[in-house]
Amino acid sequence: MIPETPVDAGPLGRDEVRRRLSGQSSAEDVPIAASPMHVLRFLAAVLRARTAVEVGTGSGESALWLLSGMVPDGVLTSIDVDPTAQRRARAALADAGVPAGRTRLIAGVATEVLPRLTEGGYDLVSVSTATTEHARYLQLGVRLLRQGGVIVFAGVRATPAHRDLFRAVEEDEGLVPIGLPVGPGLLAVAKTA
Ligand SMILES: C[S@@+](CC[C@H](N)C(=O)[O-])C[C@H]1O[C@@H](n2cnc3c(N)ncnc32)[C@H](O)[C@@H]1O
């Protein structure tokens, strides 16, 4: 089972919209607080993502959100070093009704798998592993993006722990970043050149 938020629930999921518009929610005046999952779905949708890469399959929850924003026949490549987690995620995605052909789950270490993927072949890359190698993931992920594609990091804030990542983004004039204060922090970076 995918444990967390169903795609239709939560801030500005379809259920939430229905509740607010029908007056059943008392939270009309509260600013909308999107979750990282909503941001992933939004980015996949706005990019009309046909191909995406995820680092850190985990439970499959973020995979489900990414797939829900991608075009209907879009394919998500999701990498996780833990084959047990991936087996569970595969089952969870099947339970959620995701056709097998929409995911390519690869068990492996991301820094070894990413260089084998097609350069410029992806619309979106999502990194959700707790790592000290964000700057390396930026380099490997940006290589995979088409022009106009986006790489997004979960759990990233402007702290010394992420100094190398922010420096690498700043040094590349072809990248346009935005930090988003959702969940534990997101950094999205567009590849413009
Ligand atoms: C926070 S969880 C991901 C959560 C996931 N996005 C979800 O929605 O459930 C991080 C995942 O990254 C995986 N991971 C950690 N280091 C990795 C690496 N070097 N390469 C690939 N996967 C890695 C872990 O096994 C774990 O499943």
Number of helical elements: 7
Total E-strand runs: 7
Largest sheet: 7 strands, mixed
Instruction: Give the overall shape, derived from the CA principal axes.
Output: globular
Which series of helices and strands comes N to C? HHEHEHEHEHEHEE
Calculate the terminal CA-CA distance, rounded to whole Å.
40 Å
CATH-assigned fold name: Rossmann fold
Give the overall average pLDDT. 89
State the share of residues found in helices, binned by percent.
25-40%
Unreliable spans are none
Strand content: 15-25%
The computed structural class is: alpha/beta
Q: What would CATH call the homologous superfamily?
A: Vaccinia Virus protein VP39
Q: Assembly type of the shown chains?
A: single chain
Spatial ordering of strands, largest sheet: 3-2-1-4-5-7-6
At the first level of CATH, the class is: Alpha Beta
Bound molecules: S-adenosylmethionine
Using only C-alpha atoms, the radius of gyration works out to 17 Å
Description of the structure:
There is one protein chain. The chain is of the alpha/beta class. The protein has a single domain (34-191), classed as 3-Layer(aba) Sandwich (Rossmann fold), CATH 3.40.50. 34% of the residues lie in helices and 23% in strands. Strand 6 and strand 7 form a beta hairpin. Helix 2 (36-46) runs parallel beside helix 3 and helix 6 packs parallel to helix 7 (163-171). The longest helix is centred in the middle third of the chain and has 13 residues, at 83-95. The radius of gyration is 17 Å and the shape is globular. It starts with 13 loop residues before the first helix and ends with a strand. The structure holds S-adenosylmethionine (SAM). One of its GO terms (biological process) is methylation. This is O-methyltransferase.
